[in-house]
Specification:
370 residues; alpha+beta; 8-stranded antiparallel beta sheet; 8 helices
Length: 370
């Protein structure tokens, strides 16, 4: 009996000693995990920057089928948030700011432990080198978990490494599977729409769209404005050499309205026009592939582009409809010059000196605002 008591006392003393040892360990931790992702930098950045994609690669989310996720109205960029509540894990993360397609800075709370998180994206041979770094202060439970798993660096690095492996797998298929089809010359129908216009870097279009479209949609909801289709972008100018475009982010609406003076959201009307239509199925980052095929079609068929504006893109199927980028569909319309249709010449009566009228060009009664 005494031996059992001694053993129990020894076990108790060992547990107390272990507890004191764990509690007195350094509470500051820094975890860094890196991987080369076989996708373009802009693609990787945009995927990570949008919290809607995190359930596809975050190991603590994919491991819990019953986990509950909550998102802010805008899921990408500065101010966006993601919260989760599962069987073993709960927490939240917020994006503080981003820098181009190069970095993301976040604040994360994971099971009560707060940390500063940074992501860095760098072009490299074979894809994009992504570096995920987290720095924070451990609570007692995290210290215990760290001790049992060979240290914080070891335990959290395993989590981060698994997340990055999931990210590479998801992006490898979803963002590298695409198709471009030139549908030919079509008549693009018109519509009333609300827009916000400014000059932007071409490389920032996706990030700006994630901010502007929700803003205009919220305006429509607040004012009971009936929508009339999918969001679209009008590129008034498109300068690849300088990575600049004058652009309008547009939401089609059923009826014409008038916004108040000074508002950055403006009402306008899209006039029907003829265009070469090209359909991109897959990630939006392959838009330049669609542009190349369209240019080839213009050249082969000797079609003259209309310079009133560069092109128009409709997001027919996007991340709102499906989380799989390989299934996204973007319809791109490149305006063409209206055909010159000659009128019939009058038959000349024998010995008459009256000449037939000259050919005339049919003109549209309404002119586009672009």
């Amino acid at each position: 009996m005494r031996i059992i008591k001694y053993l129990f006392l020894l076990l108790l003393l060992s547990l107390v000693a272990l507890t004191i040892f764990i509690a007195t360990q350094k509470g500051i931790f820094t975890v860094v995990s890196s991987k080369v992702i076989k996708s373009p930098k802009a693609t990787v950045f945009n995927y990570v920057n949008d919290y809607k994609n995190w359930e596809q690669f975050s190991s603590w989310i994919t491991a819990d089928k019953n986990i509950k996720l909550s998102y802010s109205p805008t899921t990408a960029g500065k101010g966006s948030t993601l919260s989760w509540d599962g069987i073993n894990n709960s927490g939240n993360i917020q994006t503080l700011y981003t820098k181009g397609n190069d970095s993301i800075v976040q604040k994360m709370d994971f099971n009560g432990t707060s940390s500063d998180v940074t992501w860095h994206f760098k072009d490299t041979l074979g894809g994009t080198k992504i570096t995920w770094k987290s720095k924070g202060k451990m609570d007692f439970l995290l210290k215990v978990n760290s001790f049992l798993n060979g240290g914080t660096q070891n335990s959290l690095t395993k989590v981060y490494d698994k997340c990055l492996a999931n990210l590479d797998k998801a992006l490898n298929f979803e963002n590298n599977t695409f198709d471009v089809k030139v549908d030919g010359v079509v008549k693009k129908l018109g519509t009333f729409y609300l827009r916000q216009s400014f000059t932007s870097k071409i490389s920032d279009i996706t990030r700006n769209a994630n901010v502007i479209f929700p803003k205009i949609l919220a305006f429509c909801e607040q004012n009971n404005i009936v929508l009339n289709g999918k969001p679209f972008i009008i590129y008034h100018t498109y300068d690849l050499d300088h990575d600049l475009t004058k652009v309008s982010f547009c939401i089609p609406i059923k009826d014409e309205i008038f916004t108040s003076e000074g508002s950055d959201i403006i009402s306008a009307k899209l006039i029907p026009f003829e265009a070469v239509k090209t359909t991109l199925t897959g990630n939006y980052t392959y838009k330049e592939k669609a542009s190349d095929k369209s240019l080839e079609y213009f050249t082969t068929n000797k079609i003259i582009a209309d310079s009133t504006f560069s092109h128009l893109e409709i997001f027919a199927i996007g991340k709102k409809e499906t989380k799989s980028p390989s299934k996204w569909r973007t319809e791109i319309y490149y305006p063409i010059k209206p055909k010159v249709v000659p009128t019939a010449y009058k038959r000349v009566v024998k010995d008459s000196l009256t000449p037939a009228p000259a050919p005339t060009t049919i003109k549209n009664e309404e002119h586009s605002e672009f």
